[in-house]
Amino acid sequence: MAWNEPGNNDKDPWKNKGGKNQGPPDLDDLLKDIGNKFGGIFGGNKSGGGSGKSFSSIGVMVVLVAAIIVYIFAGFYTIKEAEKGIVLRFGQYAGMVEPGLSWKWTFVDRIIPVDMQTTRALPSSGFMLTRDENVVRVEMEIQYRVVDARNYIFSVTNADESLSESLDSALRYVIGHAKMDDILTSGREAVRQSVWQELEEIIEPYNLGLIIVDVNFKDARPPEEVKDAFDDAIAAQEDEVRFLREAEAYARGIEPRARGRVKRLEQEALAYKSQVLLDAEGAVARFNKLLPEYQAAPEVTRQRMYLATMENIYRNTSKVMVDVDGGNNMMYLPLDKIMQQQSGGQRVIQSPTPTINQNSTSNNNSAPALSGRTDRFNSGRD
């Protein structure tokens, strides 16, 4: 019998090669086997007929209901409080979603959350050439925040990268138009403000949906090869500023004192002027009162004036030399000792002390003469 004759022929070389079924299966048989396996899963049976077909329909319905439930629950999502959601429907912008729980069509809508409240930082640094052809390394950092989610996502390919490139451009432009001394010392604030202004002008046409919150000038230093020389120059500038401040402080301190001294001298001059005028007026008044007395008794008035004058003279001295009339002795009157003895309740003169003895005359002759001189002086005062 040939291998391809009808009937139960086991001589097919593709199915029973070498006594074993090693050939590739028939496509119809393969599909039939797959159908039988699925029918067994959902309760179907080859010999069951209509009952297997009913069980298969119920299983399909159960699978469809489960798939619908999973699809519905898969569409729920949450937008955080600080975010806003951008809805893309088949890749096209379809609207914005506010924070909270929402639902989307799975496999149809795509949600892109955008943080709207977090302040982000973006650094920039590098070696740059200044206007006076010096090389300086500058480090700067900006802080920014998203204000328009749609522009932030769709205006450019990557808004953060575009902002970084704009910052580099603005920083190099400003540094290239500034002097190195200003960058390293007193012009840092001006450089910071200029970079901020230039950066806003650059990003304005692109509508990045960003706002610059702050610009921080972190560091600026020369290359390491010339750092020592620049440190000396900066120290000299700081010393100059310090000396100027000290000079201004000294000027502010000495000027009020000088003005006060001038004012005091003016007041003293005015007081001296008033004193001289009053003394002169008093002298005139005293002379006017003394003139009638002098006209009445010239000799007595002249003597009283002399004695008063001598009293004023001797009032300011503690030593008096007395020439005794009728003798050759010079007597020294220790007035300071006499005043101390008077204040202590002692006698005015206990024993005269001779200072110069021209003859061998005894001291007893001096005492009466001194006493007589003193009596006449006191009588003249009276």
Concise summary:
The chain contains 10 helices and 11 strands.
How would you explain this protein's 3D organization?
The protein is an alpha+beta fold and 382 residues long. It folds into five domains: 27-72, no CATH class; 76-115, no CATH class; 120-222, Tetrahydropterin Synthase, Chain A (2-Layer Sandwich), CATH 3.30.479; 234-315; 317-360, no CATH class. Helices cover 52% and strands 20% of the residues. It is built from ten helices and eleven strands. The protein has helices at residues 27-41, 50-74, 149-154, 159-176, 180-184, 188-203, 227-296, 298-315, 335-343, 366-381, and strands spanning 76-79, 83-89, 92-97, 100-103, 109-115, 120-129, 135-146, 210-221, 319-323, 329-334, 353-357. The chain has a three-stranded antiparallel sheet, with no helix packed on it. The radius of gyration is 62 Å and the shape is rod-shaped. The N and C termini lie far apart (193 Å). It is found in: Membrane. Residues 74-234 form the Band domain. Residues 373-382 have a biased composition (Basic and acidic residues). Keywords: Hydrolase, Membrane, Protease, Transmembrane, Transmembrane helix.
